[in-house]
Amino acid sequence: MSFKKDFLWGAAAASYQIEGAWNSDGKGFSTWDHFAEKQGAVYQGQTGKIACDHYNRYKEDVGIMKEIGLQSYRFSLSWPRVIPSGTGKINEKGLDFYSRLVDELLSQDIIPFPTLFHWDYPYELYMKGGWLNPDSSDWFAEYTAAVVEKLSDRVDRWFTLNEPEVFIHMGHVSGEHAPGVKLQKRDTIRMIHNVLLSHGKSVQAIRENTKQPAQVGMAPVCSVVIPHNDERNTVKAAEKLMFAPDTEENFTAWSNSWWLDPVFLGHYPEESLKHLGKYLPAGYEKDMEIISSPVDFLGNNHYHGYYVSSDDEGNVIHHGAPVGEALTGFNWRVTPEGLYWGPKFLYERYGKPIIITENGLSNKDWVSLDGKVHDPQRIDFTNRYLRQYKRAAEEGVDLAGYFHWSIIDNFEWAFGYRERFGLVHVDFETQKRTIKDSGYWYGDVIRSNGENL
Ligand code: FCB
Known about the structure:
single chain; alpha/beta; TIM Barrel; three-stranded mixed β-sheet; binds beta-D-fucopyranose
């Protein structure tokens, strides 16, 4: 079997990256508003103050999604737009924006699939210690409840967190993203625990407040290890490495098993606990039931992986980059097999349907003299990755959907507007949108449910 009949085809974007309207209608200040003010933090001092002006142009944008043929749109809500101080008073005008967006999507037969948190954290909560504060999970549950109360008469699918590994590592360890701090391991592990608990409480808040049965999951980025060949030893080595336990020396916030075992298996990996358990808050065990509140699927953002093989003793051999390998605009490696092995390994370990919540590339796109945007690399890249994803489906991996990143060129975090990831081109001077060749191509893929790949 290829992709299932009810397989969901969509594209994604995130609030800070597209909305603009950074201080309109009572929106609160976010850590990304704050970080972008810091000299040298973002390419050419660019900010998300205007971005794609999606806040004002959402109807046009939904019209474009319809023209392409999207079945679903994955967007995120700005927490400080909804609750300016992070807790307490709700900003009805902010929440209304998302309500109007949902109505517009539904009127075009596009399924809204919101993500509650995609990195624009309320600045006021950051001033209280942010995710390090022991109350941080209650704050997130409170915000979740406010959103679900408002939208769940029309929305029945939710993602809690986008790429927690990234906002912890880049935001709180390397300091390249907001809020731009550099924590020690002890604090990082505490923070991860609070974030996991926030996810769990958010799942519960969705289930408690939803007005109709809801499907819920997370959208982590998982580091995918790709077997360099199909030999049994190599495949085993890759799978083992993908979920390898962490030690005092090698722990990073990218660990797949440290993040995912608690959510899907209800405990931190035993072997890792021996080394790192001492950094967890006292009594952390009582949180594990909440953290592992049942979810319906495993989202996964996937861009690139790395290749390994193994010798006869099972020792891992890392394969560096071949000379002259294919690279995207971001200089990220093109590794299509990751979309076969990643979902396969994740499904085998956690047993939940997989949704690819992001996949795509940045490319040097511009509007040609003929007024069109020709981006054959994006078509080829996506075709190659989707063929691998389809192979996983054909072999029985339970795949529920695919969201291309992104629907539209946008503010690419520390790289500002330099990296264009969209199926739709934006002229940031005029806000003119142009559907790229890849957008039309993707529409054909959707209409054939991937049969034309
Ligand atoms: C992911 C982010 C998304 C976008 C893509 C390129 O890490 O979730 O917002 O920046 O990378």
